[in-house]
Amino acid sequence: MNASTLCSLATISPGERAHVNHMYFAWNERFEVFWFSDPESRHSRNLERNPTAAITVYDSHQVNGKPDRGIQLFGTAGATSSNEATRIYKRKFRLLDPSGFTAYRFRARTVKLFDEPALGPAVLVTARVTRDGLAWARTEVITV
Question: Which domains, from first to last, does the chain contain?
Fold first, then answer.
């Protein structure tokens, strides 16, 4: 999750259509993701109507054919009044002032990790997020 300052957030638009947004984010050890946004933006309105969301984080400088790394998170999100959002966000982005925007929190239920340098080519590990940390769910090996 430290590989990038940007992530992609997927939400569900009216008519059950997918919507994606790129945004700056910060996260904590519970795999909660925090960001600040305009509550009138499409993704914010989508979350107000339907909290289902997914996030992906990866280093965009990776090269095709070389070992890749990234993480996908699946869960729910919405506006939060928690001071934790500001604290976590400002720890990562010391020079940014999020005041004037609404804080959002994403709570992951499941994560899917690909880390080819550590796990080998085309191996995906899925884990459930529990209050004690991550609990392995399954391992997939993609064959071509």
Answer: 6-141 (2.30.110.10)
